């Protein structure tokens, strides 16, 4: 039946599946429209060093403002475009938008490392490096180190050599930084850690969320920190929602953090004000003082 073509394919008519196919096409069309109608925006979530209180960066997170349905979160529409050309187009939009924002902030004296999430299909697409290169080239005065690519560690990254070559170019030729996102949730975290040129490991928020109650999650974070140390990688903890989370991470030697307990993702325009009003968590600062340096 693999050979059925043309006319014969109609024998495979399956109302339910065809309905799904039609629906998927409609959704893809709608998302394509949304891109040309400028309905997407990047929100930014600050990243801080809990020990010093300093804000050093922000993660760009896509939002869809649908004219009728309102705000649609990324996990409600990104899976629909997964593995399609549209995923590359949106990914390219995200990179260009983030670069514009970095430059805009730098004009205002705000220097932050901005990380963008990169879908593995996009990363592996033939034109990824060319598009990234030209995106960077349109901001010649920008030091590329202010851009970080977050690679989802849990995604099927495909051929490790291919991906390593792409990331090597990003890092060594273009000068952008690389982070392994949601580290520890994938099938081959250690292989990725060993083989991919990532500067930073992002500890998945589920480990952080559970570490206070679950000794296993605590142990996993401990282990990741030790690994990061031996591999000479930076670490940032995601999902820091409370002062307790931060204190426990600090006690383990993990200083960089991101989470609702610091700030929720916000529109780019809110960042300068947020920075202006930002007050570091005193308990985190104090706990830092008790450490060796
Ligand atoms: P992620 O990259 O792991 O991003 C972290 C997610 O956790 C974000 O959800 C963020 O809003 C949320 N978060 C941050 N701090 C906390 C916290 O303290 N508690 C809780 N419960 N959640 C927290 P968001 O924005 O809904 O994004 C979800 C995922 O969608 C992202 O996970 C990322 O994988 C993907 N994504 C978002 N924007 C983009 C994008 O521009 N491109 C691609 N390819 N993927 C994106
Ligand atoms: Mg991320
Ligand atoms: Mg993450
Ligand atoms: Mg995630």
Write the layout of secondary structure elements.
Layout: H1 15-36, E1 40-49, E2 55-66, E3 70-72, H2 74-81, H3 85-107, E4 113-118, H4 120-124, H5 128-137, E5 147-152, H6 160-174, E6 177-183, H7 189-195, E7 200-203, H8 205-210, H9 215-230, E8 234-237, H10 243-252, E9 256-257, E10 266-267, H11 271-277, H12 282-289
Parallel strand pairs: 2-4, 4-5, 5-6, 6-7, 7-8, 8-9
Antiparallel strand pairs: 1-2, 1-9, 1-10, 2-3
Helix pairs in contact: 3-5, 5-6, 10-12
The protein binds ligand C2E and magnesium ion (3 copies).
One magnesium ion binds next to β6.
Domain EAL: 24-279
Organism: Moritella yayanosii
Subcellular location: Membrane
Characterise this structure.
With 293 residues, the chain is of the alpha/beta class. It is built from twelve helices and ten strands. The protein has helices spanning 15-36, 74-81, 85-107, 120-124, 128-137, 160-174, 189-195, 205-210, 215-230, 243-252, 271-277, 282-289; strands at residues 40-49, 55-66, 70-72, 113-118, 147-152, 177-183, 200-203, 234-237, 256-257, 266-267. The radius of gyration is 21 Å and the shape is globular. α5 (128-137) packs parallel to α6 (160-174) and α10 (243-252) packs parallel to α12 (282-289). An eight-stranded mixed barrel has the order 1-2-4-5-6-7-8-9, surrounded by four helices. Ligand C2E is lined by residues 45, 61-62, 73-75, 78, 94, 117-119, 150, 152, 181-182, 205, 238-239, 241, 259-260, 265.
């Amino acid at each position: 039946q693999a050979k059925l073509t043309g006319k014969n394919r109609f024998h495979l008519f399956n109302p339910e599946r065809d309905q799904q196919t039609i629906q998927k096409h409609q959704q893809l069309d709608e998302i394509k429209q949304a891109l040309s109608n400028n309905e997407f925006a990047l929100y930014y979530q600050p990243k801080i060093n809990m020990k010093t209180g300093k804000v050093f960066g922000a993660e760009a997170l896509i939002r869809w403002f649908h004219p009728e349905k309102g705000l649609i979160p990324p996990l409600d529409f990104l899976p629909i475009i997964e593995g399609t050309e549209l995923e590359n187009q949106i990914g390219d939009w995200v990179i260009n938008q983030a670069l514009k924002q970095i430059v805009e902030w730098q004009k205002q004296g705000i220097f932050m490392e901005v990380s963008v999430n990169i879908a593995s299909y996009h990363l592996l697409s033939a034109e990824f490096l060319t598009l990234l290169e030209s995106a960077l080239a349109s901001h010649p005065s920008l030091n590329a180190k202010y851009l970080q690519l977050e690679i989802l560690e849990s995604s099927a990254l495909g051929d490790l050599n291919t991906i390593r070559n792409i990331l090597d170019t990003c890092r060594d030729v273009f000068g952008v930084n690389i982070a392994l996102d949601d580290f520890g949730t994938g099938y081959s975290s250690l292989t990725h850690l060993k083989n991919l040129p990532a500067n930073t490991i992002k500890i998945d928020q589920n480990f952080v969320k559970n570490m206070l109650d679950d000794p296993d999650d605590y142990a996993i974070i401990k282990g990741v920190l030790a690994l990061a140390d031996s591999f000479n990688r930076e670490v940032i903890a995601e999902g820091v929602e409370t002062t307790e989370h931060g204190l426990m991470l600090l006690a383990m030697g993990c200083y960089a953090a991101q989470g609702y307990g610091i700030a929720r993702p916000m529109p780019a325009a809110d960042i300068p004000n947020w920075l202006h009003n930002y007050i570091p968590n005193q308990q985190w600062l104090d706990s830092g003082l008790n450490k060796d340096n």
